[in-house]
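Example 3.
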Amino acid sequence: MNFFPDETGRMSQFDQSITDALIEQQSSIQAAWLATLEESGAVRGVRADELKKQTADFLKLFSEGVVESGGDYWGANGWAGTREFLEALSHSRALQGLDAQQTATFVFSLKRPLFDLLQRETSVPPASLVTQITLVSELLDMMGLHTVRTFQKARESVIKRQQEELLELSTPVVKLWDGVLALPMIGTLDSQRTQVVMESLLQRIVDTGSDIAIIDITGVPTVDTLVAQHLLKTVTAIRLMGADCIISGVRPQIAQTIVHLGLDLEGIVTKANLADAFALALRRSGLTVTKAS
Amino acid sequence: MNIKDQGTRPIVTEQDIVLARQACRKLAQDCGLRLVAQTKLVTAVSELARNMLVYGGGGDLHWEILEDGLRKGIRIIFHDEGPGIADLQLAMTDGWTSGNGLGLGLTGAKRLVNEFDIETAPGQGTRISITQWS
Ligand SMILES: Nc1ncnc2c1ncn2[C@@H]1O[C@H](COP(=O)(O)OP(=O)(O)OP(=O)(O)O)[C@@H](O)[C@H]1O
Ligand SMILES: [Mg+2]
């Protein structure tokens, strides 16, 4: 028999027969729970074997928690294992891209199978049945809330990390040599991204005191008038800062397109690839590369 | 001349332009267009789709895969119900822009493709058709 005060000082307990049933009937509870989960659509994208293990692990922790801490005192030590489990679950669900509701449903969908179990336990006196149901319900509510709270935190950290990655991705200014910076542009140039990338290049030129900047457009599939406008503006700004600019990655098909578009890149040094641009940059810096004898 | 396949996609956001470029590149590849012809077509699509978004308030891109004897081609029609172009001759002048572009989109697109047709009138919207052959 478990007999513990909850946070409000109220005394609650799980009937011994219920505790026993929880332990003995784990597999049938799990089957009913899995069915409810499936039906709720809250576990789409979670592998079946993974889900099976998660539900089994949780039921084991749950019955241990009931045995160790009695009823509804969710803050009790006996629930530490369950809490940790739910936190880990929230993290993995957040990474899998499920939402808060789907994640909390994992816990809430256990209500029905547990209520059914309570009702099947005919040895429980009807008067006590209501108390037992309330107990289970409150406990699962606390667990569900805990899940949502940790899910939210996990989600926020995932989003924060993704934003940081994006920012990093958009500003890959590489120092190739003392005084030589390269900016390999990748993907679509017509968005805010261009602005951010170009600004960071200008800043890095100042910070490193570089004299030559290479903008490599090998990874840019289309050079249209908008892209050209961005490039021209950047080249002008770089020159105003007293540095030189080379545009590399101008493939033959891009060169032809530029000519037909009527873009005037006269006065801008362009190269077919980054290696050629780097070689030119070294030459301009008065450096020569020789083979070690 | 036969139309082998066709489709329509809306251009209402900046992202739609990116997707339209990707879709047209794929169509051009499937048509057997060479890399230079592909790149030219995709660049023209980029220009005309953006004009449609910026000046026409968005519109539709309709594409057709054409077969004419042995050659295959791709036709793309841009249609918006925006303000139309009042002075087409001026708009078709290299370097003329009513906004702050380079004023090379329309003329450049015309030079990039094999066929270029434009129908526009003030208050009537704009319809531009381009075709690239293999
Ligand atoms: N769909 C359209 N509806 C209304 N006006 C248009 C449309 N397309 C083009 N125009 C007008 O024609 C002008 C020239 O277009 P064009 O694409 O050549 O240059 P731009 O868009 O101004 O600059 P960019 O060189 O960056 O394309 C535009 O400035 C605009 O006034
Ligand atoms: Mg334009």
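Chain B touches chain A at residues 14, 17-18, 21, 25, 35-36, 38-40, 42-43, 46-47, 50, 94, 101-102, 104-105, 107-108, 111-112 (CB under 8 Å). Strands of chain B lie at 2-11, 59-68, 71-80, 115-120, 126-133.
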